[in-house]
Structure formats: C-alpha cells, structure tokens
Inverse folding.
C-alpha cells in the first residue's frame, strides 16, 4: 500500500527496512546516532538497532569513509553519511583511490559495497560551506555510481537498490527536497533501477535534461510552456554515473532540441558531458544548438540572499531558457 510521505521520511524508511532485512547493513557518521542526524534522516535507528550498527563518528570525513571501506571488506554493507557535501574533500582520497579501484585492482577478488549518503544543494540560506554541489567530482571516476533522486519514491527505491549493489555508490540528497518533496511511496520494500533515467513528462518540441531539485522546477516551467503551445519532454537523469545514454539520445532525437539544467557551475559540469554525447549521437537530428542553464562560475553558494538568488537556477530562468530554445 502506498501513502504520501516526504523525501526525508522515504530515506529514513529505506534505512529502517533494509537494516531489518539484512543485519550486515550498518550506518556511521556525524551526529546520526542518538540525535537522529542534523536533518533527522536517521531518527529512530539508534534506538532500534543499537550502537553496534549505528555509529556516531568524529568530525572526520576521511575516517568515516575509510572505516566504511574496511567494514565492507569483512562482510558488512556500510551506509556512511557525509553531513554536507562541502566537507567531502577529506574523503576524496579513500573514495577515489580505494573504493573506486578496489574491484579492479583485485581482479574481482574484492568488492566495496558501500553507499555514501551525501547532503547537498543551495537555496536554503546555508551559505558557502553548506550548499555546494560536487557530484561531478565523482561522476568523472570509473568504478563509482553517482545517484541523484528527485522524488520520495525514487529516494526510497534507489537507496535500497544502492545498499544491495556490490559497487561503491554516492547517493546525493538535495536538502531542499527533504521536506518540500512529497509523493506516494509503497510501505513495502522495493527497488528502482540504478542506471535508468526517467521521462517525467513526455513532449514533442524540446527535451530538458535535469536532475535533483531542479527536476521539480523544470516540471513547473514545462507546464507553463505548455500553456504557450510548447510541449517540453522532461528527462530526470537520476544517475550521473553511469548516464543513461539511450534515453537521453532517444529523447533528443525525437524533439530535435535540448536544454540542460543543473545547479552546479557551468564549466566542466555534467552538462558538458551531455552536450558531447548529443553532439556525437544525435547531431543530425538537432534543429538548434544544445543549450545549458547552470549556476555561474563563481564559488558556490553565496550566503547573502540577493547573491544566492543570483546564483541559483530558478523557475523564471528556466522559462527564459526554454523560450530562447523554442525560438530557434
């Protein structure tokens, strides 16, 4: 049976149910034990599963991920949490040099089934060190899955699937979605494919590729464009590594126009890779240049409300981008 719950409740439910199902699943990170995490994503887990499976850690991201990798090598399926993506820098070395390469360097002898939950995203007044996006750091590295759900349904199903996957997964959760995104979510356990994009809205006149919090803004803009006679197809990438090239290319070939929307800065963002894919595989079908609407190339994200508004992609900016593309 499905009921309407928030994004954060879907995350919490996925952790509860998967820890009940599999006693190898454990969680570790800063403040996630008795306090239930700064956003309450892990509320109730300490009380239910105890300190042996719910581990409060020091404020040391490198230690959190290093310990999780070690635990995975002796049979556990750890779900470490990086409280804010901005502080993941200390963990980049174990993620890229150990987790991503472990299966390859051991010729398949070892796997690293860890799922790293990462809170990210601007638009909440968090300022420079509590708002950044760095998904593309990891999407560049072979051997890692990078997932960015945009709905409560996907948040639960993709997190469960990620925990069961044998590969290291970075699971990015936009904090603006935590309590604003609501949707129907089944009570039972279920999984969502980890390497498939979702066509959220079919259309004929243009394709908009996006992910995370931007998906809801793009959907709103697409409905407004529909009133103006332009039907946009909205593709929620969901996975940034690997990218679902088939769905991306098929949609662009159908609509002949493509706009890419993401919150991250423009230079070398995931949009650049999407442009390359479309140039290589859909060029003959395109009637206009592939356009990108992104955050500006400045240190993200300003604390000042007017500057944060300048930085963030919003519905009006998306509408303007769609109108520009439609005019070609």
């Amino acid at each position: 049976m499905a009921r309407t719950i928030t994004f954060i409740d879907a995350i919490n439910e996925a952790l509860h149910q998967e820890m009940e199902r599999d006693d190898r699943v454990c969680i570790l990170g800063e403040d996630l034990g008795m306090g239930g995490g700064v956003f309450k994503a892990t509320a109730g887990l300490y009380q239910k599963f105890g300190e042996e499976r719910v581990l409060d850690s020091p404020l040391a991201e490198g230690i959190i991920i290093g310990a999780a990798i070690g635990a995975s090598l002796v049979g556990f399926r750890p779900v470490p949490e990086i409280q804010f993506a901005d502080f993941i820098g200390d963990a980049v070395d174990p993620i890229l040099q150990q987790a991503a390469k472990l299966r390859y360097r051991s010729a398949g002898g070892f796997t690293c089934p860890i799922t790293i939950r990462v809170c990210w995203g601007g638009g909440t007044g968090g300022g420079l060190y509590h708002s950044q996006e760095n998904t593309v750091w990891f999407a560049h590295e072979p051997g890692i899955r990078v997932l960015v759900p945009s709905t409560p349904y996907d948040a639960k199903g993709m997190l469960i699937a990620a925990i069961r996957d044998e590969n290291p997964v970075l699971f990015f959760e936009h904090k603006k979605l935590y309590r604003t995104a609501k949707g129907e979510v089944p009570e039972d356990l279920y999984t969502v494919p980890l390497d498939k994009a979702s066509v959220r809205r079919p259309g004929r006149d243009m394709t908009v590729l996006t992910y995370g919090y931007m998906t809801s803004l793009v959907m709103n803009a697409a409905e407004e464009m529909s009133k103006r006679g332009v039907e946009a197809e909205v593709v929620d990438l969901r996975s940034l590594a690997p990218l679902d090239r088939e769905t991306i290319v098929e949609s662009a070939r159908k609509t002949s126009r493509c706009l890419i929307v993401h919150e991250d800065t423009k230079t070398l963002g995931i949009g650049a890779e999407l442009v390359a894919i479309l140039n290589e595989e859909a060029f003959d079908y395109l009637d206009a240049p592939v356009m990108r609407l992104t955050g500006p190339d400045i240190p993200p994200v300003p604390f000042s409300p007017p500057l944060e508004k300048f930085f963030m992609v919003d519905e009006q900016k998306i509408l303007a981008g769609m109108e520009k593309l439609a005019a070609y």
